[in-house]
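Researcher: Re-running this chain for the archive, since the previous output was lost when a drive failed. Same request as before.
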Amino acid sequence: MRSKWVLLLVPFATFVAGAVLQLVFQRYTDDNLTDTDQVVFALVAAETAVLVLIGTFILADNRNRSAADNALVAKFNDLANRFAMNVDFCADTEGVESGLTYVRTTGLIEQCTKSLVFVDYWIATGNYLSGHSAARDHRDKYYEAILEKIDEWNRRPAQTVPFHRRIVQMPELAIDGTKFTLTRDPRFHSYLKACLEMQQRDAPASTVKVAPPLVHAHFAIIDGRHVVFPILTSSPDGSGGLRRHGALVFDDVEGKYVECLMAIFHKVDSLASPLGEAHLA
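Model: Regenerated structure tokens:
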């Protein structure tokens, strides 16, 4: 609207100013300048007026183009936010750089404000204590971040829904529904024990369940938007150890992928039972 007024008023003002200047020019220069000089000055004035008009139209056109460009960019951003799903691969290498997927996931957990959902597929292997110390340190901080978030949620008043939900799928449960072999992984064992204590003391901030295998995969859903899907390999009997190659990290803006994974979670949950002291004996 402002550009339209500029386009209307500037030519009118230029015309009025030109007429006034012409009268002043004729009054004070008729006796002092020759006819040739007057013609030259008149041409210069006319050219100046034309340049002012052209400049005004160019500026107004640029403003209109900028507004149109900004509107187009805004539409593209809106489409991206509504339909795009950003995916990033975080590689886990051996040595000092190992455990980077835990670092990435810990960062998302520390920013979490709504919910943490995990589905695990437990592999009975003896290499949880092996590997570079950097990876073990990153793994420790990962579990510490989860427990800190649960504790933070507990301090909020009148919470009625679980903030932290984890289901551990155990192949052994298909044979023996009581005990785990978690003594091979003291860190995970201590984390689950802390969760059990919170579950018994501060329900419903945290719920941990165990289930027979249904989906042979691990995944984490953070705040109903971010998905961490680790890429792991192991031998069929676990004797070859568990190898973490990296993880796919999804930012699911639209929520379709999260919706699918939550359907899987609820299916596994329907077969699960609450974690108890007997499972950690």
